[in-house]
Specification:
Blueprint (H helix, E strand, L loop, with lengths): L9 E2 L16 E7 L6 E4 L5 E4 L6 E2 L10 E6 L2 E6 L6 E3 L2 E3 L1 E4 L5 E3 L2 E7 L5 H7 L7 H14 L5 E4 L6 H11 L7 E5 L8 H6 E2 L11 E2 L1 H4 L4 E5 L6 H13 L1 E2 L8 E2 L3 E6 L3 H6 L5 H7 L2 E4 L10 H13 L8 H8 L6 H15 L28 H23 L4 H8 L3 H10 L5
Parallel strand pairs: 1-9, 4-5, 13-20, 13-21, 14-17, 17-20
Antiparallel strand pairs: 2-3, 2-12, 4-6, 6-7, 7-10, 8-9, 8-11, 11-12, 15-16, 18-19
Helix pairs in contact: 2-3, 9-11
């Protein structure tokens, strides 16, 4: 910040500012990123000025003490975003530069007193819609509450710690948060901490210079640099050796890093989302995880419950997976099927259920659950095999052929006619697949 006797440089509308070309194709959101009013936002529509201040009736009302009743005005134009201070006493800055009336790029972050504001394109749907596109569907009130918390957190730059058992969808949730955030046009980088050996942790996180160690034949950017402007997802953060946790904490706090073998520091602008299936509080008590890193990473904690604790989501998930693999919806599950599935603990959670549905379609019957028996949901009948007068053998053969015809038609459609890929996906050899395709007139 500039000293009192050396006021910051200012920007006027007449200054030659390099703005981004053309108006965006959709609306933008003006969002408070940090400060007392973090998370508050409003839509910006091309050509319409939005007033920001503390008085009632303005486009975006803020409560921070250093915000004036009518503090600033934001307008989306053909050449960029016009930002205008509405009072000589209104503090409006970008970095150390004071703004009175300026045209700025969409990526600019602006200080209004103690608050930081930014712009983002309107999200492509809400979080539940984004998750559904990834096959993560639910109706349970518990998951709805978690989704609401995740959606609020996505609007900020706060660090997020996602906990839950293996297979509960932690990475899917992290990706959805990124897609909903103002960083969605930036990269989404994934680093699996469980796959890192102790000797490669800092090189993978922070990068290295050429010749900094044996085998370093060229400079390589680490995960933080590659995620600059976007989101870094640190999976299995509980596996990170404690000797490296202080280095990670330092980068998170200073937003600067030094590559291995370099004396220069590099600025990084990254939002960090972490996930673990460990109980980090217990790891802290055991001396395997730093408490200060835990509190830094877990600004917003999200816990994804295991599938056995949200049985009301089973039917929707099965329908989603069945549709994904077969191209058609099954008949609703019977009460007995639901009861049998609901009583199974699903140690592999959603990932196990997905595999179960896929195997049932490939094998033609529902795979056995340990200690339980459950039939697959029926598909809509198109064969008429339930008509009286048919022998059991004829009805069975007709039903089998109907299933095979649908299965292989959907399979070859999903693989765009690639027989080799279809054979691999169905776990059968290629000659057998070709015979089945010829049998049902699906291939010459």
């Amino acid at each position: 910040m500039a000293e009192r006797n050396n006021p910051p440089q200012s920007l006027l509308a007449s200054d030659n500012i390099q703005a981004e070309p053309g108006p965006p194709q959709d609306r933008l959101e003006l969002l408070v990123l940090s400060g007392l009013d973090a998370g508050r936002h409003t839509q910006l529509v091309h050509g319409t000025a939005v007033t920001v201040g503390s008085e009632k009736g303005v486009g975006l009302r803020l409560e921070a003490e250093d915000i004036l009743p009518r503090h600033a005005e934001f307008t989306l134009t053909d050449g960029g975003l016009r930002v205008r201070a509405l009072s000589p006493n209104a503090v409006v800055q970008t970095g150390a530069i004071r703004i009175f009336d300026a045209l700025l790029p969409f990526s600019t972050r602006i200080k209004l007193g103690s608050l930081t504001l930014g712009f983002q394109h309107r999200a492509p749907g809400n979080l539940i819609e984004i998750l559904a596109r990834e096959g993560f569907v639910f109706r349970s009130s518990r998951m709805m509450t978690i989704a609401e918390s995740a959606a609020r957190a996505a609007k900020t730059d706060a660090s997020i710690l996602i906990t839950g058992e293996t297979g509960t969808g932690k990475e899917v949730m992290a990706r959805a948060i990124h897609q909903l955030s103002m960083r969605r046009n930036g990269p989404f980088m994934v680093l699996d901490c469980a796959a890192l050996t102790p000797t490669m942790v800092e090189a993978e996180l922070f990068g290295h210079e050429r010749g900094s160690f044996t085998g370093a034949e060229r400079r390589r950017a680490g995960a933080f640099e590659r995620a600059h402007g976007g989101t870094l997802f640190l999976d299995e953060i509980g596996e990170l050796p404690i000797v490296h946790q202080a280095s990670l904490l330092g980068v998170l706090q200073r937003r600067r890093l030094r590559r291995i073998g370099s004396d220069a520091e590099v600025d990084v602008d990254v939002r960090v989302v972490c996930a673990t299936n460990r109980r980090l509080e217990e790891e802290i008590h055991a001396g395997r995880f730093r408490a200060d890193l835990f509190y830094r990473l877990g600004t917003v904690p999200l816990h994804l419950p295991p599938l056995r604790e949200r049985a009301e989501d089973l039917e929707d998930l099965i329908t989603q997976f069945w549709l994904e693999f077969s191209g058609c919806k099954p008949e609703p599950l019977s009460a007995l099927q639901l009861m049998t599935l609901s009583s199974y603990p699903f140690p592999g959670n959603v990932r196990e259920l997905r595999g179960l549905v896929e195997r049932s379609l490939i094998d033609g019957h529902w795979p056995a659950l340990p200690g339980r028996e459950v039939k697959p949901p029926a598909e809509p009948s198109t064969t008429g095999s339930e008509l009286p007068g048919q022998s059991f053998r004829d009805a069975k053969e007709e039903a089998l052929q109907a299933f095979e015809r649908r299965f292989f038609a959907n399979l070859i459609k999903l693989t765009d006619g690639n027989a080799s890929e279809a054979a691999r996906k169905a776990s059968i050899d290629r000659p057998h697949l070709l015979r089945m395709l010829r049998k049902y007139g699906l291939r010459d």
